[in-house]
Design goal:
Shape of chain B: elongated
Number of strands of chain A: 20
CATH topology of the largest domain in chain B: Alpha-Beta Plaits
CATH topology of the largest domain in chain A: Rossmann fold
CATH architecture of the largest domain in chain A: 3-Layer(aba) Sandwich
Distance between the termini of chain B: 46 Å
Number of helices of chain B: 6
Radius of gyration of chain A: 24 Å
Largest sheet of chain B: 5 strands, antiparallel
CATH superfamily of the largest domain in chain B: ACT domain
Helix content of chain A: 25-40%
CATH architecture of the largest domain in chain B: 2-Layer Sandwich
Shape of chain A: globular
Strand order of the largest sheet of chain A: 3-2-4-5-7-6
Helix content of chain B: 25-40%
CATH superfamily of the largest domain in chain A: Thiamin diphosphate (ThDP)-binding fold, Pyr/PP domains
Strand content of chain B: 35-45%
Oligomer: heterodimer
Number of domains of chain B: 2
Distance between the termini of chain A: 74 Å
């Protein structure tokens, strides 16, 4: 073997990233990570670094990138505040199972524990919100640890990993040799499936008269959309989605019966408590999905297809647990079930839909009142995009409305902060989504509250020219909290009213084309104009101030107690 | 919902990794569960470490917690056992003024009856060691306490399970019996 030339730890970091096929990273420089940024400068032809305006923005951009591309999002930040600013995005990626590798600089190893300038215990801080984390104090450890980091982030149930590298380790010279990590003896990313359990599941499915599928992001993370569709179509079972499962099956698929959960559709929520078999696929029975667990699907047998053993019987006790990646287990299950159809059962969903349409949907998307509704904006986006756009949402009323009404033809098209509910997610996530799928249209739909949490990322859009379409649905309120205040706190609107700046001026300050709509007659043209633009575009829509999102399962209530008004 | 709590001894086999203690204790912290005792040591396998954690919780909770622990990358396996399923001990040290050993003849009787050992004797103090169950070390504590304890300390529980835990099999290690 030829003698290796010695390189710095910082250069080793870049070479590791290149070995892992990374060509785009998000981050923000600072003292303790300067050696790595110096190498980024040298490697800029091979590795693009996007300078966000805040480290939190870098994490959400990496998440958006990952969610649409399926690749690992990579973030770099400095020690101290740089590292702590990553925490929200890391926690978001953890709860939404997004593969991400964060690399933070750290003070030199001899200063560790001395309260040095910009020293913070990011390993301690990030432990509860990372899939794995590790501090490196010697350059020689960099390749092994980073190989492990990428393997852990993307394998099994994906998640965020943080690697903290002391400044002296970045400077230190080492002999570089890289081999990808494919095995750790203490870690089994995908549990073995049991063919007997799959057969048991198929027997329950074949016997069932009123089965209901609820699928989650596991279908998307497993790249199992086709396998899932085959299963749904062969069994003829109505299928409902969790917010993170959205777009895995086209919106217009005849067996797609809509969203479950707090602001989900009427039929799938009510009929969860009427089905005789619930087939949960790659979802985790989040409390926003189940409502009160004591009255959740108690009459039904439950099958759970899941990659993470810790999710089995965590919230809901199941009758048959099928462990494994749904990409492998679903085709087997499909082979054991008989072709079937459930017409009269599906008609029940249709009749619930008719009630929901009359009481809620019609008024949302074809309103007769004066004020603009969020729903009609989404309808216009649907028409302009033909359902082909990637839609990124923030958190709150607009998120629920968008997820309820947006049309999706393709998977990996819905990017939102589900489990953590992170306001400020959408704008940076949309940047990442556009860079992860440059040929696709990316529309960020954001409330006026969340928009202002990461509004500085307009700077990133300006600097990179990233052609995202930003739609701010401005109701001058923190709408979801206000809705709860109206319904459960006797309209005491504590700190939910917002006096907003002129968003158009701000967008123009960043040289982003901007337009405001406050009349229905201008809406269609404005949305179409935005969608036609090949550049970043900002559209503010002044919507009704005190509109509420329905249906709604009040917290603590049963899914079947969902309210339409 | 107020199901009965039991004492469980959790055994966790892990790689030797900095920060793993933090990661494991965070699982309990997140669920507001108090750790009654915790010890960590080398296990029967080279470079594999063993945590012994004692908690008081409901049966349905312990099962979920074990899965959360096993989910950690560097945890090889975790088990839980009731007191009936393990052999467990704690060690306590009692530091007493030497003067009382000679003045209070009763102390010698206490030591003898409790099957405790005198670890060291110096002109000023002597140290008694007692290994056994919690009730035994507590009984000795209560007996000695009236004579004045200079210091008292008790270790966390150490335990071995009656059933095999088969870590070598999990790791695919070839162990000659």
């Amino acid at each position: 073997m030829s003698k290796e030339i010695k390189i710095s730890g910082a250069e080793a970091v870049i070479r590791c990233l290149l070995e892992e096929g990374v060509d785009l990273i998000y981050g923000y420089p600072g003292g303790a990570i300067m050696p790595i940024y110096d190498e980024l400068y040298k490697f800029q032809d091979e590795l693009t670094h996007i300078l966000t305006r805040h480290e939190q923005g870098a994490t959400h951009a990496a998440q958006g990138y990952s969610r649409v591309s399926g690749k690992v999002g990579v973030v770099t930040a400095t020690s101290g505040p740089g590292a702590t600013n990553l925490v929200t995005g890391i926690a978001d990626a953890q709860i939404d199972s997004t593969p991400m590798v964060c690399i933070t600089g750290q003070v030199a190893s001899h200063l560790l524990g001395s309260d040095a300038f910009q020293e913070t215990d990011i390993i301690g801080i990030s432990t509860p919100v990372t899939k794995w984390n590790c501090q490196i104090t010697k350059a020689a450890d960099i390749p092994v640890v980073l190989a492990k980091a990428f393997y852990i982030a993307k394998s099994g149930r994906p998640g965020p990993v943080l690697v903290d590298i002391t400044k002296d380790a970045q400077f230190e010279l080492m002999e570089f040799k890289y081999s990808k990590c494919t095995f750790l003896r203490s870690y089994k990313p995908v549990p073995d499936f049991s063919i007997n359990k799959i057969k048991n599941a198929s027997e329950l499915i074949n016997k069932s008269k009123k089965p209901l599928i609820v699928w989650g992001q596991g279908v998307i993370l497993g790249n199992a959309e086709n396998e899932f569709k085959d299963f749904v179509e062969k069994t003829g079972i109505p299928a409902a989605w969790t917010i993170l499962g959205l777009s895995a099956l086209p919106t217009k698929h005849p067996l797609n019966v809509g969203m479950v959960g707090m602001h989900g559709n009427y039929g799938p929520n009510v009929l969860t408590n009427e089905c005789d078999l619930l087939i949960a696929i790659g979802m985790r029975f989040d409390d926003r999905v189940t409502g009160n667990l004591n009255s959740y699907a108690k009459q039904a047998k439950i099958i759970h297809l899941e990659i993470d053993p810790a999710e089995i019987n965590k919230n809901v006790d199941v009758d048959v647990a099928v462990l494994g990646n749904v990409k492998e287990t679903l085709p087997l299950l499909t082979s054991f079930v008989k072709s079937n159809s459930h017409d009269s059962w599906i008609n029940k969903f249709n009749s619930f839909y008719k009630i929901e349409y009359k009481k809620v949907i019609k008024n949302d998307i074809y309103p007769s009142k004066d004020g603009l509704t969020m729903g009609e904006v989404i309808k216009e986006i649907n028409e302009a995009s033909n359902g082909d756009a990637i839609i990124v949402t923030d958190v709150g009323q607009h998120q629920m409305v968008t997820c309820r009404y947006a049309n999706f033809n393709k998977s990996k098209s819905n990017v939102t902060s589900g489990g953590l509910g992170t306001m400020g997610f959408a704008l940076p996530a949309a940047i990442g989504a556009k860079m992860g799928a440059p040929k696709r249209e990316v529309v960020a739909v954001i409330g006026d509250g969340g928009y202002q949490m990461t509004i500085q990322e307009l700077g990133t859009i300006f600097q990179t020219g990233c052609a995202v379409k930003i739609v701010v649905l401005n109701n001058e309120f923190l709408g979801m909290v206000r809705q709860w205040q109206q319904m459960f706190f006797e309209k005491r609107y504590a700190s939910t009213e917002m006096i907003n700046p002129d968003f158009i001026t701000i967008a123009k300050g960043y040289n982003i084309e901007a337009k405001k709509v406050d009349k229905r007659t201008d809406l269609k043209n404005s949305v179409q104009e935005m969608m036609k633009s090949s550049k970043p575009y900002f559209l503010e829509v002044r919507v009704e101030k005190e509109a509420n999102v329905f249906p709604m399962i009040p917290s603590g209530a049963s899914v079947s107690d969902i309210r339409l008004e | 919902m107020n199901e009965k709590k039991y004492t469980y001894t959790i055994s966790i086999y892990t790689e030797n990794n900095l920060g793993l203690l933090n990661r494991i204790s965070a699982i309990f912290l997140k669920r507001h569960i108090n750790i009654e005792s915790l010890t960590t040591s080398q296990s029967e396998i080279d470079n594999i470490f063993r945590f012994v954690v004692v908690v008081n919780i409901q049966e349905n909770k312990i099962k979920r917690i074990i899965k959360q622990i096993e989910k950690q990358i560097e945890v090889i396996a975790a088990f839980f056992h009731t007191d009936q399923e393990t052999i467990f001990l704690e060690t306590a040290l009692y530091k007493v003024k030497s003067k009382s050993l000679f003045d209070e003849k009763h102390i010698q009787k206490i030591i003898k009856e409790s099957q405790a050992n005198i670890v060291t004797v110096s002109p000023n103090y002597f140290v008694i060691e007692k290994t056994g169950w919690r009730e035994e070390t507590e009984k000795l504590y209560n007996s000695l306490e009236p004579y004045g304890l200079l210091q008292f300390v008790r270790s966390g529980r150490i335990s071995v399970s009656k059933e095999a835990m088969n870590i070598s099999n999990i790791l695919g290690l070839n162990t000659d019996k």
